[in-house]
Input
Amino acid sequence: MLQTQPIPAQAAASDRRGGVRPTPWWMDVMLVLFVAAIAFGIARAAARWSTPLSPNVRIDTSISQLPLYAGLSTLRMAVAYILSLVFSLLYARAAAASKAAERVMLPVLDILQSIPILSFMPGVVLALAAAFPGRTIGLELAAILLIFSSQAWNLAFSFHQSLKTIPRELSEAADVYRLGIWQRFTRLELPFGAIALIQNSMMSWAGGWFFLMASEQFVLGANNLRLPGLGSYLAAAADARDTHAIIWGIVALVTVIVALDQVLWRPLVAWSDKFKFEQSGGDASESWMLDLLRNSTVVAWLHDHTVAPIERSLDRPREPLKLVRFKFVVPRWARVLAGFVAIIAASGLVIWGGLAAFHTVSGLAGRTWWTIVVATLATFGRTLAALIIATAWTVPFGVAVGMSPKWSRRLQPLVQVIASIPATALFSVLLLVLLELPGGLNIAAVALMVLGTQWYILFNVIAGAMAIPSDLKEAAGVYGLSGWRKWKLLIIPAIFPYLVTGLITATGGAWNASIVSEYVIFAGRKISTTGLGALIAEAADAQNFALLLASTLVMAAVVILGNRLVWRKLYRVAESRYRLE
Amino acid sequence: MTIAMEAPPSVERGEVILEARSVDKYYGDDRTPVLDSVSVALHSGEFVALLGPSGSGKSTLLRLLSGLMPPSGGMVLSHGEELTGINPNVAIVFQSFALFPWLTVLQNVELGLLAAGVPVEQRRERAVAAIDLIGLDGYEEAFPKELSGGMKQRVGFARALVVQPEVLFMDEPFSALDVLTGETLRAELQELWNSKSMPTRAVLLVTHNIDEAVTLADRILVFGANPGHIRIELPGLPAHERMHHGPARQHLVDAIYRVMTNPGEDASMLVGQPSAPARAERPRRYQVLPDVGIDDLTGFVQYLSSIGGRANVHDLARDLQLRSDDVLAIVEASDLLGFADLQDRAVLLTQPGVEFADAELDAEKAMFRHFALAHVSLLRHIVRELDASPSATLDSDRLMEELEEAFSGGEARRQFETVVDWGRYAELFSYDDASGELRLDPESGVGAADALREAMTADSSATWSVDGDDN
Output
């Protein structure tokens, strides 16, 4: 028998990295300081939440205030993200637990995903501000709720998808070796879903920034309630036409995004490599931060004295350990009754909501409906134009980048940084320029939509072009395919599934963006153009709830219909015909 | 023919540990049967093999006995008490290993002890001991992806043995491994079992490999498909007869081959000994098409022709390096089409088979079309439906629905894929996967349909489930 002394987990981890020297002491000091700074920042920002609400928050555009604003924005994002994560883990777990639950919970998620979030902002702000009279926390919660609703759905979908695709024998192994619920969750379900969750978390953060910036720039009626943060800073700077402050504001935003990428997402992605399910090795992601953490004595000490004992106590089996699968089966009549009650309650709720909505909406005059139809057509036209423009430049560019390993290596990080700047942060800045152009907001709105949605398409096209197998490229070369033929026979079929995926996200994004781009309050004056987004924003501003509800429902219906009638079909074609296997 | 049946069971049977009493299992809302009234008792001290083609429900039975799923009818008894939930006395070694890729070898092995609430130190000690026992010391901190298939399955064994199960279940444990590795592991397992160095009191092995079953088992249950049932129970060989390839072993292997190559016949007649009355085979609407692609079929006929038109099934599996049930499926397909004849355990190429092997591509296709129409009732059915349809098309969903009435879900899909593969190759129809539409081929398909129609009118009493007689 060879030596079989157990190796402590941490030592094993650094052993695997192969003789890496330990992190120098000053790095450990830096780490401690870093953590302390974050803790201090959170404490300070949280202290503001209980401060009395001043009716007219003045946004200070001096640069010295930027770190505070950046911290406030990031904190909002973090709180919303943690809520989203907890929600989606629970929701997905519950949905996967039974067929019946799944049948209800998934369509609900699908509908929630299609509702234009921004149109709820006014209602939510009013309600929460009323719930905490005179306190900032109501406003903060409204912003957090808005970000939450932009982050949670795809996380929940992703985790549910993971739970459903756990290989059967792996799940049976967990059953046979009688892992408890917690052990099963930590040893099997969470690890199996980790990679998809992290990827989707990054997407959620990008989406979150978009809405955070929008919500911080949001000014409610005459009250002028606004949240201090990077979004409001940029808006104030643009209002004041303070180029200096605008530039610094953007720099601060990019810095926050890049820093988060470096100290949070990259390490997570590199760390999650070990959850890859393929049984053989692949190329691993790298992260300096992760290496630092792995080799740090402080982190190892912290792990051994905080995380490890908690893990151990959580792992302790709860008696009795029997996995009750089909022992205490609820009698059939009880299940039927429960299902019956649930259906009646659910349909009652739906009917009540429907009637209430109908009652609200039915007050609208015929002419108003006509306005909504015209507005919908106008926004539809803009969405279409935005998608065409975005596709027209991203497809050739993305294919060029994706098919050349050299360019994709050089440009990918740059494109990622540019893309990570939320378009909403730049809206007020861009308006400075765009409003001077002929066509005014009518054209500017399209430009803003393009800005907000082109990245979804670009990233997918690059990914698609990179995924073209080199033997196919070589075959195209050998048979002399070039120009249009090469596009028709190789490139378009290869990127098609990716393009469709990108377009689906982009379409939803464009409709949503119309709310902030067709109606703007800029330098104290209202500017708007014909469109459904403008209608929603205007109705919200005027607190005309009938119109708000009607136009929101129309937008949700248009998005859902588009998904069902166009995108899903295209997606199915893409999946079945153009899938490279 | 006399065979090794008179050999006494090599192990005295102990008490019954685990038992399935006439269990049924249905899947899905349409209650497709997978297992039909199967009874098995597992005694202390014995090694039992469940042998059968894929789809015969042997893995399902294993899952019922382990409590991973409840039976639809009948009951599972553990030590005489009805089993409700996961069987605590059982560990499983899986075909795909089912290791957790994010856990080290040690953590994977500790998994079963973790749930049992064994204290940390003891957990580690026992896991390390199990790893040693199975020959993996030094690999404790490795991750599964760093290991070869054989090493992975060793981890699978260690993980199963560390919980000291009363019964060890093995679901095709060697079939994902290459032949040599599988052989090594099998021998080691046998040694462990024989030396009684593990506390396990009984082993249940699911396999499709006849050699494996004969080498390891005290008792062999041969399963039949559609729905799964036990066709015959055979006693294993005495320990000393198992390893060397003597006549007793050959007899047993031959008997099992005969049973497995004649799925439609009474198994006890085939092994030449009386046993429990066999269940009557159900009349079927369609014959069961073996899951064999065109390439394998044509390749096989040509191979058989090249070696003189005659071969032993057992040798074929070895020479072609194929799993024995795959070879059986191919042989069955050639037999069904009239290109080969299965006699006892030898395959003979028929005259059409010889011609088929020599034919040029076009002639080969024409022959295939002719013989497939003559012998495959489902193919004739499709061509007639296509002929009757004004647009000469058939919706694949409709065909699937029909098949699902006759076959279980997975089997229906396989039947569909096989018949589409054959029909496309025969140029009887085309199939568009995206629209799910079968379309009659304007040339040969229409011709075949005409011929079928004529034959119908000529002999109106013709029943199409009976094979044609034109060879």
